Amino acid sequence: MKVKNTKRKSILPYIAISTIGATLLFSAVNHSYSGAASHTSKSGITTGTGSTIKTAAAAKSTGSTFLRDNAPSRTAKKNASGTLVVTNVSSTVVLVNKKRTLSPSYTPSDLVVPNVPFSFSGSSPKKQLRKPAATALEKLFAGAKKDGISLKAVSGYRSYATQKSIFARNAKLKGEAVANKTSARAGQSEHQTGLAMDVSSASVDYTLEQSFGKTKEGKWLKANAAKYGFIIRFGEGQEKLTGYSYEPWHIRYVGVWIAGEITRQGKTLEQYLEQFE
């Protein structure tokens, strides 16, 4: 089945992707989708980078290339001290974890403040997200409001220095072993990527507690995050795989199609990307 160009504005539902038989069709189209449909232009499928993919075959090929290029083995290099430092920092699927570190000097170049309610007032760097994630968060909050769900953003971007202070404080209060399961060391935090936001609700006093996952807001977030391009990054039962305790409040932007695939497959981001080695 071929996808023909049309002069009419339209949206291409996911089911159309399935009939093409191209599971990877939108994995590469750097994830500027909303809801259950992709944005299209008069000349074809518009990517997150502004370029257009005009045919299904080209989109599938680009998707495969994108995921292969972002496979873990291709996106990190050891520095002089032997630390594995990620190299695809601008990618929306950049993988940061206990084994893969961001440079202390890395700061995203496209940080903005999303137009959503926050749990605190005043200006702060932690209100920021990278632009594609911020746009997606605005849509997620709008979707939640439409469904009668009230959410507030708590903590987004954090610099390397900020994360260093947070981990040191947690290690002092809880002990290093506990801190290592509940917070990231400097350079190992997804918050430094500008693609992660902690979200909470009044039902738990806007705290970041596992009980949030049992609230109607937490349940809504888990059920709907992928529609807007987010995953629950540290899922329940995935502790041994991620190295972190369950965090129902921590959502990570990866793009609608990939978020949907990760959620459908029940995988971690690591497991999903490792498939494309």
UniProtKB/TrEMBL annotation:
The chain crosses the membrane at residues 12-33. It holds the Pfam family VanY. InterPro entries: DD-CPase-like (IPR052179), VanY-like_core_dom (IPR003709), VanY/YodJ_core_dom (IPR058193), Zn_M74/Hedgehog-like (IPR009045). Keywords: Carboxypeptidase, Hydrolase, Membrane, Protease, Transmembrane, Transmembrane helix. Residues 127-255 form the D-alanyl-D-alanine carboxypeptidase-like core domain. One of its GO terms (molecular function) is carboxypeptidase activity. SUPFAM superfamilies: Hedgehog/DD-peptidase. This is D-alanyl-D-alanine carboxypeptidase family protein. The lineage of its organism: Bacteria, Bacillati, Bacillota, Bacilli, Bacillales.
